[in-house]
Design brief:
The protein has two domains: about 90 residues, Uridine Diphospho-n-acetylenolpyruvylglucosamine Reductase, domain 2 (2-Layer Sandwich); about 375 residues, Cytochrome P450 (Cytochrome p450), CATH 1.10.630. It contains 18 helices and eleven strands. Strands 1-2-7-4 form a four-stranded mixed sheet. A three-stranded antiparallel sheet has the order 3-11-8. The chain is globular.
């Protein structure tokens, strides 16, 4: 009788390894199928995915809000070749910005971020890494810290004063000091631009653009915002990166070149003044501060000039458009609810009086003013969709598996109007911040109200923005009677843009309210 053949260990090893590999592969495939992704809307198209859902005339935050009504506070879209996570609920957002804050700490690499942001050197647009964390530290501790803003507070005070005097002069010239029709976007824009320009480069906006190239520089700043909202196919389809459908990349390169020339000019002037010893410590603007830090700092992959210019440009752009938009919405909301407008004026008269102008030190006592600003930021956050983030690793959100390289949009517009948090969420009601939401702030501590974002990517300019909003709005309402051009409520229709913007420019009827001695 023949004994059964027994393989030697050497001949059996390949078979064992093959079996183990097969079992591992089978387990991996099975596990992948078991990972539960967030719900996805039906009707995704081949190749382009859910892109047609965002191709209508309505703003993206509105379209995504309607999808959230159907699919809930967390769902996923496929936009071209990329997964995009849409979050519209505060509890899910809190999870993204706390437990998974580091996982979602990076930025997608868009064409605009590369071509307009100095090849991702601009820290607000930089992917997560040592460059971002290094610049973020400088921005938060040295450029936008409270002690630095206090040293520059005279600039805000001065620019608001100049702008208020212009309004008085406008009323006087147009109707002998009586009522005059005024378009407010220009006025708010000049307050914001002149303030941020003086803080960053030490010059008012108009003076900074004196000489040759001034008009071109102004247009380039405007084009920057328009180009950031342009649809670039390669942002969704990497294989198209060599093509420039629509010519947007060419326009971005041209705009970036003009802005770089502008910043080069200012940087040269700052270096010359610094080397000559003309600048006293108390006169240092952001560009001077950057120059003093760069001497002892290293930024792998970027030269010192690129870092300074990209950071200063980020400050200018971040301080201009969003603040202008916020101020316009605040006044629009007040004029459409006359009792709120009158209540604010009464508070100003009570705490400030009618024989002097509002100062920064008054703001802490103007509780209703603070509530008006919070309510404005709740209803119309300047960025209705948070600046996109991108996951660096697999993570879990609300029980769903989120693969690495998933882009994240938080629909702040929808989140801030959650009826389970806010009573009558579509109504302008500053009083809510005096009662039920009295302890809410806007600096990321309350996930139900995050107009400046939250987590490690929160906007570092929140304090400056609030200072500008409070003082500008307080002085305007305190020193002028402001009314609508007609008895009809203001049209609050929005347009799709980088910020949530009024479709119809805001026009108001102005009349001086206090003695001319107050503003002189």
């Amino acid at each position: 009788m023949e004994l059964p053949h027994i393989s030697s260990p050497t001949t059996a090893l390949p078979a064992i390894f093959a079996l183990l590999f097969f079992l591992y592969a089978l387990f991996t495939i099975f596990s992948a199928h078991r990972k539960r992704l967030p719900p996805q809307p039906r009707g995704a198209w081949p190749v382009i995915g859910h892109l047609p859902l965002l191709s209508g005339k309505e703003p993206h935050h509105t379209a995504l809000g309607k999808l959230a009504d159907v699919y809930g506070p967390i769902f996923m879209l496929r936009l071209g070749a990329h997964r995009t996570l849409i979050v519209s609920g505060w509890e899910v957002a809190r999870e993204c910005f706390t437990v998974n804050d580091k996982a979602f700490a990076s930025r997608p690499k868009f064409a605009a971020s590369q071509l307009l942001g100095y090849d991702y050197a601009m820290f607000a647009l930089s992917p997560y890494g040592s460059h971002w964390s290094h610049l973020r530290k400088i921005a938060t501790l040295e450029l936008l810290a409270n002690h630095r803003l206090e040293k520059l507070q005279h600039i805000l005070r001065s620019e608001v004063q100049i702008s208020i005097e212009k309004l008085h002069q406008f009323c006087k010239l147009n109707n002998g000091g009586n009522k005059a029709l005024m378009e407010m976007e220009t006025w708010f824009g000049e307050v914001a631009l002149n303030t941020i320009f003086r803080m960053v480069v030490g010059k008012r906006f108009t003076i900074a653009f004196e000489g040759s190239g001034g008009a071109e520089y102004r247009h380039a700043l405007e084009d920057f915002f328009n180009l950031f909202t342009a649809f670039v196919p390669s942002d969704l389809f990497a294989f198209l990166k060599w093509f420039d459908f629509g010519g947007h990349k060419k326009a971005m390169k041209k705009t970036a070149k003009v802005l770089d020339e502008m910043l080069d000019k200012w940087l040269t002037e700052h270096r010359e003044r610094r080397n000559s010893g003309e600048v006293a410590p108390e006169e240092q603007d952001f560009m001077h501060v950057m120059l003093s830090f760069i001497d002892n700092e290293e930024f792998p992959g970027y030269d010192a000039d690129t870092v300074i210019k990209s950071t200063c440009l980020a400050m200018i752009l971040g301080g201009f458009h969003t603040n202008t938009t916020d101020m316009i919405w605040a006044l629009s909301l007040l004029l459409n609810r006359e009792e709120a407008y009158e209540k604010l004026q009464k508070e100003l008269d009570q705490h400030v009086g009618r024989d002097r102008a509002v100062s920064e030190s008054d703001v802490k006592n103007l509780i209703y003013l603070q509530a008006v600003v919070k309510e404005t930021l709740r209803m119309y956050p300047a960025g209705p969709l948070s600046v996109p983030r991108e996951s660096m690793e697999d993570c879990t959100v609300a029980g769903y598996h989120i693969p690495a390289k998933t882009r994240l949009w938080v629909n702040l517009y929808k989140l801030h109007r959650d009826p389970s948090v806010w009573e009558n969420p579509n109504e302008f009601c500053p009083e809510r911040f005096l009662t039920t939401q009295k302890n809410f702030d806007v600096k990321g501590r309350n996930p139900q109200l995050i107009p400046f974002g939250a987590g490690r990517r929160i906007c570092p300019g929140a304090t400056f923005s609030l200072q500008l909003l409070h003082l500008s709005l307080a002085r305007l309402v305190h020193e002028f009677e402001i009314g609508r051009p007609s008895k009809e409520p203001l049209n609050m229709e929005e347009i799709a843009a980088l910020n949530v913007t009024r479709k119809i420019p805001l026009q108001v009827v102005l009349a001086p309210r206090l003695s001319t001695k107050v503003h002189e």
